Amino acid sequence: MADEVALTGVRKVFPNGTTALGGVSLETAAGKFLVLLGPSGSGKTTLLRLVAGIERLTSGQIRVGGTTVADDRLHVPPDRRGLSMVFQDYALWPHLSVLENVAFALRRRGGPKDARRAQARKMLDRVGLGSLTDRFPGQLSGGEQQRVALARALVGDVGLVLFDEPLSNLDADLRERMRLEISTLVRESGATAIYITHDQSEAFALADRIGVLEKGNLVQVGGPEEVYSRPATPFVARFTGAAAELRVRVRQAAGPGERVVVDSLLDDALPVSACAIEALSQGEALLLVRPASVRICGPTQDIRHVVGCVSDVAFRGRGYELAVDLSTGHRVSNVVSSQRVARGEVVGLHFEANGCVVFPDAGGGTRSSGEPTADAAGGEVPVRRPEPVSPTVAMTGRPR
Among 54, 223, 252, 317, which residue's Cβ finds the most Cβ atoms within 10 Å? Predict the structure, then answer.
């Protein structure tokens, strides 16, 4: 049976005084797939380790399946929380065979050894490793090892499965195949899943709900469509994929969710229509544009909103991805074209209204997509490309 998970005011302050989490409250219903998205230093790994019981919280409360497992005084050990965990580095026992690694997750339940091994074989068949049961982890590829880790996490039929960036060590093609397998197998099992990643495309593909973390704070929670179309803050819009960020002028005041018109970005160009995320007053504002809403047009066409020079062209298989430098000094990136456009060519860009959002201008310079932002530790993390455990973590912990 799947477990619901509820965090209330969860804070984590490390002994050196660093605040990793600043009071996170979050709930996920039983059987749902929650993805926590954020750059390195945002607190997502710390949050996952607190749910697992690997770390102790400073204050707040964590409930799993309706039972309090952690608060200011209580700390239930990982092996008593009824969960399993899939680690980034697989965490397989090197001296045990594939079958023994998976069957090990069932030891605490007791029962006949033959029955445990039969259950493990069945799960390995489900992940496509039924013919490799006698091999050892060192004889497997990275993708095969991750499937073993996934089989071990699911074989115990636990109510909650935690994923610590499990695909970050795999190549692009294998990541996509493993993402599909994780999505299918976890949903077939009926378990609740909490999955952390810094990859926004991975988050949108997997999640029923997404929680976005910034510097130890949960800044937005919602469905993938909601987070993409109605980002709560400029940070969320940037981190989940913004082609451009431009300072504009709003023609008239508007409330949250209302359509607004911003003055033309060129003297003779069309005004831009966008969605106001917060209440806006007439005057300066910040326009963020999604890549999917940018269309290439002629530099003198009436539908253009901006004009710029193509500074880079990359072939992506399904088309070309362009970077266009504007005369204002800003860059519009991730512009998709079905045809090759030469570097140095002048093009017009049209911004479709459904991919444009406007925030009140908080001051400071604008930043085009792709430039770095500061992480929680004060270092720099690219906007779109950011980041010893006991073996008793619900039968899937890291071997000592």
Answer: 54
Q: Would you say 245 and 287 are in contact if contact means Cβ atoms under 8 Å apart?
A: yes
| C-beta separation of 89 from 388 below 8 A | no
Highest mean pLDDT among 24-38, 175-189, 257-271: 24-38
* C-beta of residue 34 within 8 angstroms of C-beta of residue 194: yes
The sign of the dihedral angle between the CA atoms of 199, 201, 202, 208 is: positive
Residue that is written with structure tokens 């007791």 in the block? 110
Tokens of 324: 């266009």
Are the CB atoms for 154 and 189 separated by under 8 Å?
A: yes
Residue 11 β-bridge partners: 22, 59
Residue that the structure tokens 């984590």 belong to: 12
Both tokens of 194, joined, read: 């909490």
Q: How far apart are CA 245 and CA 263, in angstroms?
A: 15
What average pLDDT does range 154-176 have in this prediction?
Answer: 87
DSSP state of 27: E
Mapped onto helix, strand or coil, the DSSP state of residue 6 is strand
Answer whether 215's CB lies under 8 Å from 63's CB: no
Residue 293's pLDDT band, with cuts at 50, 70 and 90, is: very high
Helix, strand, or coil here: 347?
strand
